[in-house]
Amino acid sequence: MARRSSWRRRIVLLLTLAMVAGGVYTAVLFLQRSETLVAERCTAPGGGESELATDQAANAALIAAVAVRRGLPARAASIALATAMQESKLRNISHGDQAGPDSRGLFQQRPSQGWGTTEQVMDPYYASNSFYSALLKVPDYQTLEITDAAQRVQRSAFPDAYAQHEVMARAFASALSGQTAAGLDCSLRTADEAGDAGAVQERLTAAFGGITASADGRTLTIEATGPRAWAMAQWAVANAKALSIIDVQVDGRGWARPERNGWQPADGPAGQVRVTVAEAPQR
Question: Do residues 199 and 102 share a domain?
Answer without folding.
Answer: no
